[in-house]
């Protein structure tokens, strides 16, 4: 507990104190001279010995501080809508969990299964006290126990460390979890080596035992064995051929079977998503070829999105008449650069040199989530190939920012034409402006608010674009920005049935979906500094970890535009400041799942301001507002207000 307090205060980061031979902290020379010396990791103040903290726990605590995890309160995100309840992993683990539950029938521990993203899938066993504790800390199916959200714990820390993790009592970073002890170990797919999830054993801290590690280790081994059994003999043979090919070559290797697709790390690192799809389609076509004309091995040359030509060898696995899969190995022809090797600066092209590889994230954009980076690469690739692209997403997610960044990366010296379809009431005038923009052969034409286009307009645009390409053999890159209603799923492609003209039109060869900000909260930590730099008027306005934690908990119905407006309001009039939670708008401290009326929003804002004025004291806030204690507690629950009691500001 003392080590945790010193970690939260930052005292464990630097140290000069010594450690005694028994592993306990002792006072150093500075303390003997009368001046205090800071403690080493695992020691306390000089002269106050206690057993040292394990290095794995200290490392996890440091990660929690970097993620600004709240040490006093528990915020467990609910992610049930993203869980695959029919996954192969959950099906294989069910009998093992049943057996462990029977084994623990007379014990006070419960077993928990989570997937590879620390989302709880199942919970079994435990006496009444353990079940009550699990319910209080939301250790139930549908909630995420990732380390960056809830701090050090047996599930998230095991995934982060990729090995067995035991966390006992006060070793938990979040205070509400310190009543528990847990042991978790990752479950790996025996064939692919990927982490499928975690099996975790949880009990009260006074009931902890070293045997917890042995129980979860055996349970994980049993689940891995059942995962292997669920693969058919054909799938195992195909995977053996895939692994054998990967050992013989250092290049990208892919495997395609009727039920399984996988790629090695080189393929994931060097190839873009469309390259993987192209190679997968080639293998699928070879598998689907008629038996009489099917060849066991085919060598072809593929043109990657980066412009590099690679030689792909497609080899069927299994009997000639009944193939069970296809392995695709890629090599670079002699004298060519390998995929992913830059050969020129952006925006230049000399001779027949291939263009540079696409960056993981386009310059000028901020974010780290896989979906945002994938959208960045897909849009940049479409811009490079001049594929008419439809970018779909909610208002304010950054559709125009993606297109601008792709344009400035691929063709920085050319013009960007932005046409707002809602700003032109006359369709004739809009078509004339579109036709003029399409004459710019090397430019980019952006059609904003594509959802407002009717079928006649889309037909005319399709005709203009076809003429431009037919007359010159090429043309500008055309991107349409389609806005879908907020607080709803983003369609990844044109829906079936009666689709809006802009979604049903043949103008756009590909569609890129941009996920809303509430589905990629990890991007907020990168967006906040970038937006503050934009609104800080040259100053150094930053965000404290406590304020960042408040921002990451918000749903942001207006997405990045909403976040930018809140930060602009908080940074107004400041040039050098650290934003605190009380500097943020009252709406950031509320997690109400419905739209509030103007009166309810004003009531919520008054409660949030009163709580900030009274340092989180609800009784004092009720007296300041002139309402009863019961009323303010009811309103706090109704509006989902989350204002923690403040320490010294």
Features:
19 strands, transcription, 649 residues, nucleotide-binding, transcription regulation, alpha/beta
Structure write-up:
The strands form 5 sheets. A 5-stranded antiparallel sheet has the order 4-3-7-6-5. The chain is flat. The chain is built from 22 helices and 19 strands. A hairpin with a 6-residue loop joins strand 6 and strand 7 (195-204). By secondary structure, it is of the alpha/beta class. Residues 1-50, 332-353 are annotated as: Disordered. InterPro entries: AAA_lid_NorR, GAF-like_dom_sf, Homeodomain-like_sf, HTH_Fis, P-loop_NTPase, Sigma_54_int. Residues 27-47, 338-352 have a biased composition (Low complexity). Residues 365-572 form the Sigma-54 factor interaction domain.
């Amino acid at each position: 507990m003392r080590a945790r307090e010193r970690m939260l205060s930052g005292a464990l980061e630097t140290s000069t104190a010594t450690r005694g031979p028994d592993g306990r902290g002792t006072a150093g020379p500075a303390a003997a001279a009368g001046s205090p010396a800071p403690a080493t990791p695992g020691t306390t103040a000089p002269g106050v010995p206690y057993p040292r903290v394990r290095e794995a726990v200290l490392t996890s605590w440091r990660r929690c501080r970097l993620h600004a995890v709240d040490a006093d309160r528990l915020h467990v995100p609910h992610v049930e809508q993203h869980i695959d309840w029919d996954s192969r992993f959950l099906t294989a683990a069910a009998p093992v969990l049943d057996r462990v539950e029977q084994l623990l029938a007379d014990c006070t521990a419960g077993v928990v299964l989570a997937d590879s993203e620390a989302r709880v899938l199942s919970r079994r066993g435990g006496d009444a006290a353990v079940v009550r504790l699990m319910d209080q800390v939301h250790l139930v199916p549908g909630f995420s126990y990732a380390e960056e959200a809830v701090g050090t714990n047996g599930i998230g820390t095991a995934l982060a460390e990729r090995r067995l993790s035991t966390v006992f009592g006060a070793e938990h970073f979040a205070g509400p979890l310190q009543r528990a002890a847990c042991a978790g170990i990752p479950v790996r797919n025996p064939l692919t080596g990927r982490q499928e999830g975690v099996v975790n054993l949880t009990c009260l801290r006074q009931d902890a035992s070293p045997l917890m590690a042995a129980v979860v280790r055996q349970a994980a081994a049993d689940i891995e064995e059942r995962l292997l059994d669920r693969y058919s003999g054909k799938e195992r043979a195909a995977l053996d051929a895939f692994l054998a090919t990967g050992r013989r070559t250092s290049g990208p290797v892919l495997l395609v079977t009727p039920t399984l697709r996988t790629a090695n790390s080189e393929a994931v690192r060097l190839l873009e998503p469309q390259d993987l799809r192209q190679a997968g389609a080639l293998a699928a076509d070879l598998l689907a070829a008629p038996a009489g004309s099917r060849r066991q091995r085919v060598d072809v040359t593929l043109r990657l999105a980066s412009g590099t030509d690679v030689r792909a060898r497609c080899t069927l696995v299994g009997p000639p008449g009944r193939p069970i899969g296809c392995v695709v190995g890629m090599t670079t022809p002699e004298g060519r650069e390998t995929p992913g090797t830059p050969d020129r600066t952006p925006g230049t092209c000399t001779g027949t040199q291939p263009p540079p590889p696409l960056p993981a994230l386009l310059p000028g954009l901020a974010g780290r989530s896989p979906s945002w980076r994938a959208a960045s690469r897909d849009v940049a690739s479409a811009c490079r190939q001049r594929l008419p692209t439809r970018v779909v997403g909610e208002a304010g997610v950054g559709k125009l920012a993606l297109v601008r960044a792709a344009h400035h990366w691929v063709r920085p010296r050319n013009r960007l034409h932005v046409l707002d379809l809602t700003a032109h009431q006359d369709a004739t005038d809009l078509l004339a402006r579109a036709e003029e923009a399409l004459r710019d052969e090397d430019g980019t034409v952006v059609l904003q608010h594509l959802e407002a286009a009717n079928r006649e307009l889309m037909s005319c645009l399709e005709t203009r674009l076809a003429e431009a390409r037919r007359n010159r053999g090429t043309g500008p890159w055309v991107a349409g920005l389609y806005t879908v209603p907020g607080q709803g799923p983003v369609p990844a492609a044109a829906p079936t049935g009666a689709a809006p003209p802009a979604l049903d039109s043949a103008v756009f060869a590909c569609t890129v979906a941009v996920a809303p900000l509430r589905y990629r909260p990890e991007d907020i930590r990168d967006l906040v500094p970038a937006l503050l730099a934009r609104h800080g008027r040259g100053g150094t306005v930053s965000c404290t970890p406590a304020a960042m934690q408040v921002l990451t908990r918000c749903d942001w119905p207006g997405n990045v535009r909403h976040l930018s407006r809140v930060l602009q309001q908080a940074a107004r009039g400041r040039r050098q400041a650290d934003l605190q939670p009380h500097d943020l708008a009252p709406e950031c401290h509320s997690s109400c799942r419905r739209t509030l009326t103007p009166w309810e929003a004003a009531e919520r804002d008054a409660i949030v301001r009163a709580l900030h004025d009274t340092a989180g004291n609800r009784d004092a806030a009720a007296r300041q507002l002139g309402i009863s204690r019961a009323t303010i507690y009811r309103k706090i629950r109704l509006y989902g207000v989350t204002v923690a009691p403040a320490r010294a500001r």
